Amino acid sequence: MSFAGSYRSGEVDFLLTRLQARAQTFTDVAAKERLIQSGQRHYSQMLSPEAVPSQRYMDLFEQACRANNARMAADCLRLAALIADRRDGPITLVSLARAGTPVGVVVARLLRETFGRQAVHYSVSIVRDRGIDAAALRHILASGHAPASIVFVDGWTGKGVIARELARSVSAFNAAQDTCIDHGLYVLSDLAGAAACAASGEDYLIPSSILNATVSGLVSRTVLDERIGPDDFHGCVFYEQFAPHDQSQRFVDALVALAPASVPDAQPLDARAAAVRSRGYLEAALARHGIQDVNLVKPGIGEATRVLLRRVPRLLVLRRAGHAEVAHLELLAQEKQVPVVIDPELPYHAVSLIRSASDA
Question: What average pLDDT does the chain have?
Fold first, then answer.
């Protein structure tokens, strides 16, 4: 059964199975990393427990909101305009949980309130190497939404892995179901040149990337383990105990209020140049740091933040120390005793490297 998380009814339907948050549901970060890298478990089969952010960290979140909410709001409006231009009739936004969920909430509201378009919003799971939640897509189609109305939304691309996973798995779904859903991904910031449409190509601090459940409707990262059957939605944990600290509704309301009265001019994005830059950096990083698995390299502020929040980091690489865009990363690195190196030639503000299990 769908639910709205901590958002208002009608702002999003999470097509996720709510799992009981028992002790055995969670795996500590170090054990999870060993199991992932040894191939014993897939990352989607495990959750690490989340905690309420410290006051010091929340202060950085508030600083990030003051600095970049207006920019994010303008990009949400620009993305809504691009979607409105590319779709006729009712629009079915399908955000990729969790990073895409706040974006989907805001873009859906802007489509309705600014562009006068009929728009509904679902948030579904996609898992690297496992694909999009086919049960969720079947539910959306069975609810009467035309395949041509569906638009997939996320926050950003890092290496473009999820954009490619989306293309692969939706194409397979289309073939199996004899339908024609567009597999293109719409994002605020496309660092990899992998999205179908993006509001920006710059690596900037999207404030919602700083937090986990408390800015994403109190929903955990999605889970695809033995409890999930072929006709079930992918799973999640709902952290209702974090409700007193929840920023989800406040954050999206602030973005909608900050959206400009007119659509900002879209800067032309050179996706080919972004893709070349991404490939070039990844090849150089693998060679420089002696890494065999490209999945251990996470470029861009959003991906670097995820590593420091829920993986075992080996190194944080910054283009410049003391920059407001990476203040939260420097704090996390300090708290977790992660080495930091400065590389003025870095094509992104930040990159995190995950520690290889063989180095442990």
Answer: 94
Cβ distance 119 to 153 under 8 Å? no
- Determine contact, residues 156/190, Cβ cutoff 8 Å: yes
Return the number of other C-beta atoms located less than 10 Å from residue 309's C-beta.
Answer: 20
Structural contact between residues 130 and 224, judged by C-beta atoms closer than 8 angstroms: yes
Residue 346 CA to residue 332 CA, distance in Å, equals 20
Report the C-alpha gap between 104 and 150 in whole angstroms: 12
| Structural tokens at position 14 | 């999470």
Residue 360 has pLDDT above 60, yes or no: no
Query: What's the predicted TM-score (pTM) here?
Result: 0.94
Strands (E), the chain: 13-14, 17-18, 91-96, 119-124, 126-127, 131-132, 150-157, 185-190, 197-200, 235-236, 297-299, 313-318, 340-342, 350-354
Give me the torsion for CA of 66, 71, 75, 78, rounded to 10°: 120
In 3D space, the residue among 349, 338, 348, 352 whose CA is nearest the CA of residue 303 turns out to be 352
In the block, which residue shows the tokens 């490619």? 164
Q: 281 Cβ partners below 8 Å, 6+ apart?
A: 299, 346, 347, 348, 351
Residue bearing tokens 């590389």: 343
CB 157 within 8 A of CB 191: yes
What digits encode the pLDDT tens for the residues 136-174?
A: 999 999 999 999 999 999 999 999 999 999 999 999 999
For 37, 78, 293, 295, the CA distances from 356, given in Å and listed in that order, are 7, 39, 9, 10
- DSSP-derived 3-state class of residue 172: helix
